[in-house]
Write a structure and sequence with these properties.
Elements: H1 2-71, E1 93-98, H2 108-123, E2 130-135, H3 137-145, E3 152-154, H4 163-178, E4 184-194, E5 197-206, H5 229-304
Helix pairs in contact: 1-5, 4-5
Length: 305
């Protein structure tokens, strides 16, 4: 019985240590989540402003595109930056899949990868029909293990990624689109809703198709643009597309921190439940040992009489 008591005590001690570790990790993830949510809010303000500017500058061209679509015309010669706005026949599709680099985030990665694989299986007959870009080591390793070619990958993002960190991969994605490596681009990731909930999303990034000419702001004074509106848009439209991808990365990171916090809270709660059950078992075993000792003492005293 003594050995059993010692074994239970050791299990209680080790579980308490585990609980302390998971509790600390929960607090760290909570702090990261707070920072990510603040960064996401700040980005939304920027995204709203740049969307407003782009919509205002291309309002006339968007209207022309609507007219061209309505009349079934493909005459876009006068709109030389149309490749960022005008859909073209889809020969290949590009996907950016955002996962974490590490584990301990519950079902965060499995949700993204499972649904992405299902989507690609439903939409494509072979790997020749799509190009894959992976952000996060978990996703990159997952696809490589299944023989799926990863055209480009990015690992080791910080907890609060800056645009400089992801500039190369987002620039590469937009350049691949411009060079017609693929004809449309989607980003697959988990969207952060709150600390307990995230939602798998597939968002179309290119061509830019969510701009509405009705959103264009009308100004009393007309702006003088230098060097020209066309030259500005040649630079602004790729930057806008890059900002959309960056926004998805920030959103995904926020969801990752929330998943990590939830996973560590669940682990801490489970550890506490195990400690409670082990404590009950220890007390029962100890009570049984004491009862046996008393019985032996009484029996020995009775034998001496």
């Amino acid at each position: 019985m003594g050995a059993s008591l010692n074994e239970i005590k050791q299990r209680i001690a080790s579980t308490k240590k585990t609980s302390q570790i998971t509790n600390a990790m929960q607090m760290v993830s909570g702090a990261k989540l707070t920072k990510s949510e603040a960064a996401s809010r700040s980005f939304q303000e920027y995204a709203s402003k740049i969307r407003s500017i782009v919509t205002h500058l291309v309002a006339a061209q968007l209207k022309d595109l609507e007219d061209l679509d309505n009349y079934g015309s493909d005459d876009t010669a006068e709109l030389h930056y149309h490749m960022m706005l005008k859909a073209r026949p889809v020969k290949k599709t590009g996907y950016i899949v955002i996962t974490s680099d590490k584990g301990l985030v519950g079902g965060y990665n499995s949700s993204i990868l499972k649904q992405t694989m299902k989507m690609m299986g439903d939409d494509h007959e072979s790997q020749e029909e799509f190009v894959l870009i992976a952000i996060g080591g978990t996703g990159a390793d997952f696809f490589k293990a299944r023989g799926i070619n990863v055209a480009y990958e990015l690992r080791g993002l910080t907890d609060q990624p800056s645009f400089d960190e992801v500039r190369k991969i987002v620039s590469t994605a937009t350049t691949m689109y411009e060079n017609e490596v693929f004809d449309e681009l989607y980003v697959c990731y988990n969207h952060h809703i709150n600390s307990l909930t995230s939602q798998f999303r597939v968002e179309k990034m290119l061509p830019i198709s969510d701009l509405d000419p009705e959103e264009a702001t009308t100004y009393e004074q007309e702006y003088i643009l230098e060097p020209s509106k066309e030259a500005i848009l040649d630079n602004l439209l790729p930057q806008y597309a890059e900002s959309l991808i960056y926004g998805a990365i920030i959103d995904a990171k926020t969801a990752e921190h929330a998943a990590g916090m939830t996973a560590m809270k669940t682990a801490t709660d489970n550890a506490q439940n195990i400690i409670s059950d082990l404590t009950i078992s220890y007390n029962r075993a100890r009570q049984g040992a004491i009862t046996q000792e008393i019985t032996e003492i009484v029996a020995g005293a009775a034998a001496l009489e």
